[in-house]
Amino acid sequence: MKISPDFRKRVLAREWLVGTFLNLGSPITVEIAGLAGFDWLLIDHEHGPGGEDTLLHQLHAASGTPAFPVVRIAANETPRFKRALDMGASGVMAPYVSTAAEARAAVAAVRYPPHGVRGVAKFNRGAGFGGDFEEYYLHGHERLLTVVQIETTEAVNNIDEIAAVDGADVLFVGPTDLSYNMGIRDQLESEPFTAALKKVSAAAKKHGKAAGILVHNDKLVPKVRDLGYTFVALGSDGGGVRTALLGFAAALKAK
Q1: How far apart are CA 12 and CA 31, in angstroms?
Q2: Which of 4, 194, 196, 226 has the maximum number of C-beta atoms within 10 A of its C-beta?
């Protein structure tokens, strides 16, 4: 399969690129989302119920759409990157990256030697089962996207050093974890949280990276955009299904 040769460049150019989270483990919702107009999709295998068996089918579904598929793995561990990328992910999101060393480890896990430490196997889906391996090997470090999640106060304190890591393409705020770790649970419009968002965005801009975030409320989209966030996700398939079903049930039970 072919990775977009320009999507990572668009991300680093800080183009406005929108996505959504897919946490149901379903290839059907991946396909629906991919055809809905999103630029990128986040297939969530940190908190979602899916496993490696469902991931392959989700990536199959994504490949039939124009959207760029990014997989969030459960932990910043090298073998997890390899599995997602070999299956055909075009990018990987690493959770809980709090130091520059952790960011460097994530980048190295995405890239083949000499740029990183990813294990080499020519026969995998990401490399077209060997047919596209040469191009994939030569250009993977230029096209595969590495997204590091900023979810702790330590990460915010280290944000300039994290942003300086070559290949840490998107500094992606996990708002729920960050607010909980800051002791201001879900206070996403509070002054301290906004200050943290500004600090992340400023570091991304300084080092030529993109700032990203997930928002659950569409009213927050203009705010984060004004703060310099360009890689922005709204909602999830699970959240969308639950909201719709609650509405259906309420309408049917209304007197």
Answers
A1: 26
A2: 196
Please, what is the Cα angle at 2 between 110 and 88, to 5 degrees? Answer: 50
Q: Please pick, among 47, 115, 139, 207, the residue that the annotation labels catalytic.
A: 47
pTM of the predicted model over 0.90: yes
pLDDT in tens, 59-117: 999 999 999 999 999 999 999 999 999 999 999 999 999 999 999 999 999 999 999 99
Architecture of the structural domain at 7-253 = Alpha-Beta Barrel (3.20)
Would you list the domain boundaries of the chain? Answer: 7-253
SS3 of residue 160 by DSSP: helix
Instruction: Count the neighbouring beta carbons within 10 Å of the beta carbon of residue 191.
Output: 9
Beta bridge pairs of residue 233: 19, 214
Active site residue 47: yes
For residue 125, the 8-state DSSP code is G
Question: Angle at CA 38, nearest 5°, toward 152 and 124?
Answer: 80
